[in-house]
Amino acid sequence: MQIPILNATSYQKSMLGGRTQPCLFFCEDDDGNNYGEYVVKLKAGMENRENGLMAELIASQLAIYLDVPTPYPAIINIDPLIAEIIPDQTLSRKIQESAGLNFGSQVITGGYETWPVGKAIPSSLKQVALEIFISDALIQNPDRRPDKPNILWKGDELFIIDHEMGFSFLYEILQSPNPWQMTSMRFLQNHLFYGSLKSQTINLSRFAGALESLAPDTLDVIVSNIPVEWRTQNVPKIIDHLGKILNHINQFIDEIRRILQ
């Protein structure tokens, strides 16, 4: 998987909501080819800076490999001069402080909205909701809750966004020597879809098969796409976490089944 490295060429607007105050930019590659609009998470607005950028990029790549719907990621280079035309001084300063490489994702167009608070899962979306739940368990993401869904929705389509808080064990929140054992991890009971999936008939075979079909060098490819300046000492911890789960897929899937039974 090749992650494009693009240049932000034109600021469009600040996106509503989100602690990082993401912005919409037109972007192009070094040859001037237009790539369209990207939502850019400004590194100056991220609590965990390089760790947050890295978590976004690793989690979005994993989602794509596992066929969990998410906008395609990119690495967006910001020239600080682009901030000079922005009248909002606070935002202008934040963009200037975000000079260099930031995390971006393709804009999802066509009338999508944030998943409504309290909305029940329709039967047509039950399987994808289940697999979003499993993927959040995989990366230990506690940040997809009823009050903060981080999901774009339209009809029978969903896209997961905002993986900045993934791999929470890095912050000594959910540490475990055996990451495939999750029964005691209470964050999953606060997940957006937990209540609707609990005690329901579920099919875990497709996601388990997707995990099993990952090529042996998939994690190496994912790491190779991380810019050097984002590679903190936590990269080996994340790869170790994922590697342990991939070596215990059956146990991981059994834990999901127990949590939802």
Give the distance, in angstroms, between the N- and C-terminal Cα atoms: 36 Å
The helicity comes to 25-40%
How many strands, which pairing sense, and closed or not: the largest β-sheet?
5 strands, mixed, barrel
What's the number of domains?
Answer: 2
- Strand residues, percent: 15-25%
Q: Which blocks of ≥5 consecutive residues have pLDDT under 50? A: none
* Biggest sheet: strand arrangement: 1-2-3-5-4
The secondary-structure class comes to alpha+beta
Would you spell out the secondary-structure blueprint of this structure?
Elements: E1 5-14, E2 23-28, E3 34-41, H1 49-65, E4 73-78, H2 89-97, E5 100-106, E6 113-114, H3 126-138, E7 151-154, E8 157-160, H4 194-197, H5 205-212, H6 218-224, H7 235-246, H8 249-260
Parallel strand pairs: 1-4
Antiparallel strand pairs: 1-2, 2-3, 3-5, 4-5, 6-7, 7-8
Please provide a brief summary of the model.
The chain has helices spanning 49-65, 89-97, 126-138, 194-197, 205-212, 218-224, 235-246, 249-260, and strands at residues 5-14, 23-28, 34-41, 73-78, 100-106, 113-114, 151-154, 157-160.
